[in-house]
Amino acid sequence: MKTARIIEIFPSLQGEGIYVGRPHLFVRFWNCNMACRYCDTDYKGPYREVDSETLSSEVLSQIQSHGPFHAVSLTGGEPLLWSRFLKSWLPWLKAQGQTTYLETNGTLPDALAEVLPWVDIIAMDIKPPSATADRPFWKEHEQFLRLAWDAGKDVFVKVIVTADTQESEIRQATDLVASVDPAIPVVLQPVTPWGPVREKPAWSQMETWTREAGGKLADVRVLPQIHHLLGIR
Fold this sequence. Notes:
Elements: E1 3-13, E2 23-29, E3 48-51, H1 52-66, E4 71-75, H2 83-95, E5 100-104, H3 109-115, E6 121-126, H4 138-150, E7 154-161, H5 167-180, E8 186-190, H6 203-214, E9 220-222, H7 226-230
Parallel strand pairs: 2-4, 4-5, 5-6, 6-7, 7-8, 8-9
Antiparallel strand pairs: 1-2, 1-3
């Protein structure tokens, strides 16, 4: 794969997860293999077909103009749909001394294996079926998380929760993470209402889920999307 479809490249603050608030350079890839009801990204929107040389030039220009950055964030859509391109491009990025941050839905373990040597931080979503328009991905999530953790990567899990999330889903997600390592940080991220999703989970739900997860895991946090609160991308 000599080219990739890029929606945008832009500097901003990381809006989700345990590195929230850190300056990141975002490289947004086109397309996704899931169709989450709450998704606020036009991942099927306009894109540019770029080769690795063009992408390198544009990323380097952003680093020089707006850096330094805590990390270069590969986001989407689902960036691992472009794993063959990333496998050839990421060694260049690492050679520039950049920390690579992969934002992923955690459903493509084989694609992760292709790029794992050049990824530093993995922000992996666990998608409860109630929050998506897809089938459950528990098996793929477990394979993905185990692969990332066994490779010694800096990995954490985000569980996107909605008003429709079931306690049984939190229990299953918690058990999944604990089966790999209870030390893995887990973020319960209340959905930001968008599209057909009109309401966030109530605090009584969050409290129950936090207690459920905290009984089995060492590091459980509730963190919203701060970029929406700040009015930035």
